[in-house]
Amino acid sequence: MKEGSKQSLMGLLNDLDDPWEEENQLPKKEEQEARYTYIKHIASGGQKNISSAFDTKLHRTVALAELKSDLPDQETESFIEEIFLTASFQHPNIIKILDFGIRKEDTLFFTMELMLNSNLRNHIKKNETPATQNLEIFLKICDAIAYAHSKGVIHLDLKPDNIQIGAFGEVLISDWGLSKKLGSGLKNSKSQGTPGFMAPEQTASGAELSSATDIYSLGAILSFLFSKVPENEIPQGIHAVIKKAMAQDPEERYQKVEDLKHEISNFIAGYSTNAQQAGFIKELQLLIRRNSQLCITIFTSLILITCLTAYFLLNLKDKNVNLAQSIEELEITGRKLSKSVILEKQLNTELVNRELKVAENLMQYPLYFSSPASSSQKALDIYLRQENTQTFNKKLLIILLIRQDFDKILELELKAPEELMEIIEKFAQKPKSADGVLKELKDFVELLQTMNNLPNKPFSNLKKAYMERAVYYSDDVVKPIIMSPLIIKQLIKTWNPDWDTNNLFYSIHNSSLTLRGHELSVLSDNSPYSSHYSFLRFLKFKKLDLRESNIAVMRHLNGLDLQTLDIRETQVQNLHPHKATRDISTVIINPGQFPEESINHLPPAVKIIQRK
């Protein structure tokens, strides 16, 4: 390795010293050698060799990536950039960097999660799963790439070999070696990528690269998922989506990954895709398919009515019946027709009720929190097409409040308590962005604060049903790089009304978050209107200090990517490993705070520091 690159990496490594733990030191090369055992070569790429290895510190098998020797400085810097770019991501479908540094003969390396099952190519090759079932995998891939794009990064090498599939359905995007930061005028310097999955602009020197470049690759992956299906049997909706995503002209593709994901979600739910441009007959076919049981019942009823009517008419024609008998039979048929009409009305009512149930589910966990903007729009459309929208006053009010559509609330003349109506009228005057949300961050923070200031009686349930969904909606639409701590303070305060928001201290530089206050006891909620994740997950930090708070259970940390946790002088009584804390490497406690038996339940890789 070149000396300049070595010094660069050493400097970056030393910058990561933990200010909470002074005794942490950068591991020596000899220690790195001893840490990784049972190394077995798996594959080689353009700039690195991949091996499986057993990490004696983490007590798990990992993937060990080592930079090939005698590569130009540009490739070495690219390898280092890949390490720090991947490490900066916090998403369940993007592979995690576990360790990095310098090994034998000054070889740069990093380790990451190892999927023992297969990559997407092998998964499709070995499994006979219907192609439509694999669309759930595709949605997870879209989630990961949409997240990367929201952070200003494009992958540029999306292909089945770079998508790892776990034995239990885990999906991880790997190999970010060719990725680049998005920016105006980002040009392609040389042909890089994988034929069959790389966009046309990746082969043309000087062509502009954008998020549409990754969308082309996503279209190719979608096509690959149906590679075992004869072309004439691929669903029209999927074929149209693939064609649009892989358009030669980037301007003709989907402009956002969320749009592509929305199309596939529609297909899975039994709706037509926009790319398909379905006519009336196709929409009717899809409606029948979505409601097959109801349609069968209605169709059977119509056949029965038709048969009875035909039977009567034939008897009337073929037999010499008197007028009285004819009238009697007409009356009988009329009664049967009336019953059928009543049955049809009942079936229509059931169909409407099912649609309303769909709208309710769209606004609850988990559907809403996977795609807040799309889910809330679908639910809103369902309620607005009902005959009497006033019947759904409360449902429409909460959805439009979440979507910050105050003008629509006033237009529909929805009813609300006087205090709430004052808020609606006030914020209807605030400037909006093109996406329909409040343009200024300070206005959104003020909105949350004003909602929190409503008296708990009778507004407590409304505030809890509104607050987290409103924050998720804003995050989905605005996509900030880092959410403002001012928003998180208001989110926490909804469930901890007596807590002082000045007791939150956030440092991006130190990657740390400190929370104080005995009034603080809730950091997550398991209601249908909550994500079931910690309210803190919108902030980026590795160290969490909960000293002198009233937090009692680890589930309040669910969804956080932590390395160090300080729970001195808290109400936590159980240190048994929890899915919310499985990746924590250091826990700081008071001397004697927990019995030795409880501490021994933790994995050996977790370091316990007892400190006053």
Automatic annotation (TrEMBL):
Domain Protein kinase positions: 36-265
GO molecular function annotations of the record: ATP binding; protein serine/threonine kinase activity
Transmembrane segments: 294-314
Biased composition (Acidic residues): 15-24
Alphabetized InterPro entries for the sequence: Kinase-like_dom_sf (IPR011009), Prot_kinase_dom (IPR000719)
Region (Disordered) location: 1-31
Keywords: ATP-binding, Kinase, Membrane, Nucleotide-binding, Transferase, Transmembrane, Transmembrane helix
PROSITE patterns cross-referenced by the UniProt entry: PROTEIN_KINASE_DOM
Superkingdom of source: Bacteria
Protein name: Protein kinase domain-containing protein
Organism, scientific name: Lentisphaera araneosa HTCC2155
